[in-house]
Design brief:
This protein has 405 residues and is an alpha/beta fold. Helices cover 45% and strands 12% of the residues. It has helices spanning 8-16, 25-34, 53-66, 98-112, 127-130, 135-142, 147-151, 154-161, 168-184, 196-208, 245-253, 260-267, 272-284, 289-304, 307-322, 343-349, 356-364; strands at residues 21-23, 39-44, 71-76, 121-125, 188-192, 215-219, 332-335, 368-370, 373-374, 387-390, 394-400. It has a six-stranded mixed β-sheet with strand order 1-6-5-2-3-4, sandwiched between helices. Strands 7-11-10-8-9 form a five-stranded mixed β-sheet, covered by helices on one side.
Length: 405
Amino acid sequence: MKAGELSARDINRLLKRGVAEIIMEEEMGELLRSGRKLRLKEGFDPSFPDIHLGHMVALRKLRQFQELGHQVILIVGDWTAQIGDPSGVSVTRPMLSAEEVKANAETYMKQFFKVVDKEKTEVRWQSEWFGKFTLADVIQLTSKFTVAQMLARDDFSTRYSAGRPIAVTELLYPLLQAYDSVAIQADVEFGGTDQKFNFLVGRELQSMVGQRSQQCFMTPLLVGTDGSQKMSKSLGNYIGVAEPPEEIYGKAMSIRDDLILQYFELVTDVPDEELAEFGRGLADGSAHPMELKKRLARELVTQLHSQKAANEAEAHFTRVVQRKEVPEEIKEYRISLGGSGDFRDILVQTHLAKSRSEANRLIEQGAVSIDGEKVASNVAPVKSGSIIKVGKRRFAKVINTDRIK
């Protein structure tokens, strides 16, 4: 189906499901009905290379627009990554080197194209236009906006009122992101609601230079697996799109019951009519939350991996989590057990913890066991062949290299 052939129902679904706000919605509808090929802007800050389901909400919308023949332009923020966008975090982010930006961007794009069609995406790097910027260009750009306008942004205003620092470079971020829209002549910019201020600056700058102002297409912020805060890797409440099938399935099964419908709506293609049935079933008790979460987990793993992987992940979950059996295949780690004797080091070496501090936290929470016995301290009886378990789904088998001649 082409954009000009969209029915009122198709447009309504495109502009309503998984959408928080559109500026301007009426104009957006007119653009879709016009049949014109739209230029869709998606920018990313390669300060962090991994994508989780929270990002996927907007990416799935991009894919839907792509399927109607519209053009996605992915902008790699290699310049703004050296400034840092404080949206939603209210802290100054460290600048990155060019090498760090490139490495993160490569990882990001590999995951991005698990959701968005690579063949229908144009990739642009900010350095294409900002690499030619002179000091005069920067001053001319900053002259178009006032400090008062920048401080109207919620996180800047909050930090300013609290006496917390705001780097001058951070005030440039919205202007540079806005200039990206000018550089590629964007018709629509996609992202979360935390980007609203930046999107509006882009609309205003385009109007100033004689371009048609872009539409701002904002998607909801998905609540993380902790059930309280938005999904974030730094908070550890995320489901990564590149994670193994068993991990995606298991994490989906851990979400709160009251989030089931939100996840179905934002990150699956299950029809609206079926979602309404799920809602009625949860309300009257005829639908079991566990079964709905299994359906959700299968949908996610199939989308990000395959149907076969989803079936295997479900069998793994049933065997390991529900029946509490040990997995058939456990990754082995060959390490020396004659070292410091600190069990936290073993957790780090087997990648069950990222650091000693995280290992400490896991042990204190009672989340670690060795051969079925819960670990209570940093000194634990690990021997060659021991199976270490963290949480409900993560296992490692230790082979002592001290005994290998």
